[in-house]
Amino acid sequence: MSLVAELRAAGCVFAEEEAALILSTAAGPEEAGRMAARRAAGEPLEHVLGWAGFLGMRISVGPGVFVPRRRTEFLAGHALRLLPPGGTAVDLCCGSGALGAALARAGAAEVHAADLDPAAVACARRNLEPLGAAVYQGDLFAALPRRLRGRVDVLVANVPYVPTGEVPLLPAEARAHEPLLSLDGGGDGLDVLRRVAAEAPQWLAPGGVLLSEAGGRQAPAALAAFTAAGLEARTAEDDDLGATAVLGTRPRPPVTPPPAPRG
Fold first, then answer.
1. In 10, 19, 26, 47, which residue has its Cα 20 to 30 A from 245's Cα atom?
2. Beta strands 88-92 and 152-157: pairing type?
3. What is the distance between the alpha carbons of residues 23 and 26, in angstroms, rounded to a whole number?
4. What is the pTM of this model?
5. What pLDDT was estimated at residue 72?
């Protein structure tokens, strides 16, 4: 049976494209056959290939690591536009480090990334350390060096935002092969987002921006969380990608005019 036929029989909608990617990645026919069998058994294509495409980059991924989604390129685009020359960037809940890699390649002077999951941290280090970025394991901001407080220009946090009750409704690829930690966002899906928003102003530089992803119907509650933290919040949407980004800016302190000369 050809690779295309095997993948099509397993229900892969884009069997021809997936077979071509497998053949271009495998070292030879035997490895291609093993890869096709893994894909036919239900593994995400990116785990089978060992990489995911993201903004024209090949991001290393592997079993047990969250696969960067195409819709997250929308979030990345906003982060790249807001990154000042030579700015400092942080990628929280970094997973494979795809967002951090985009910021590092764009010329950020410093990129720091963190995740709680050891498999994600190991993967992010493969992607980010060659770019000069630092990767830490730990719970959100607790993983970061204290010296970054008040210095971060762009803080991206692609937090888990699937409501707990909806996790069983996710595609089998995600449920069976990606860590629950990267998917389950609590009762309404915004537990982690609220934690990030509440602490972000302590880490952002004046004028610095927090960017996160959320579901479209979660946007009002996400905006409220950003506003409650003292951030100037707004949302951006891309209907074609099905993407919603929430952005919050730490206000700059008011400029005090010089005293009028005495006369």
1. 47
2. parallel
3. 5
4. 0.91
5. 96
Looking at 122-178, which runs of residues are DSSP E strands? 134-137, 152-157
Q: Binning pLDDT at 50, 70 and 90, where does residue 263 land?
A: low
Looking at residue 129, its pLDDT comes to 97
Q: What residues are paired with 233 via a beta bridge?
A: 248
DSSP-derived 3-state class of residue 136: strand
State residue 230 phi and psi, 5-degree precision. Answer: 95, 15
Helical (H) or strand (E) element with 90: strand 88-92
pLDDT in tens, 70-90: 999 999 999 999 999 999 999
Q: How confident is the model at residue 13 (pLDDT cuts 50, 70, 90)?
A: confident
Tokens 């280090």 appear where?
Answer: 125
Whether residue 97 is predicted with pLDDT greater than 80 in this model: the reply is yes
Q: Give burial (CB, 10 Å; 0-12/13-18/19+) of 176.
A: exposed
160 exposure class (CB count in 10 Å sphere: 0-12, 13-18, 19+): buried
Is there a contact between 100 and 133 (Cβ–Cβ < 8 Å)? yes
φ, ψ for residue 215, nearest 5 deg: -75, 155
* String of DSSP letters for 172-237: HHHHHHS-GGGTB--TTS-HHHHHHHHHHHHHEEEEEEEEEEE-GGGHHHHHHHHHHTT-EEEEEE
Two structure tokens written together for 79: 């982060």
How far apart are alpha carbons 92 and 103 in whole angstroms? 13
Task: Please state which of the ranges 7-16, 107-116, 197-206 shows the lowest mean pLDDT.
Answer: 7-16
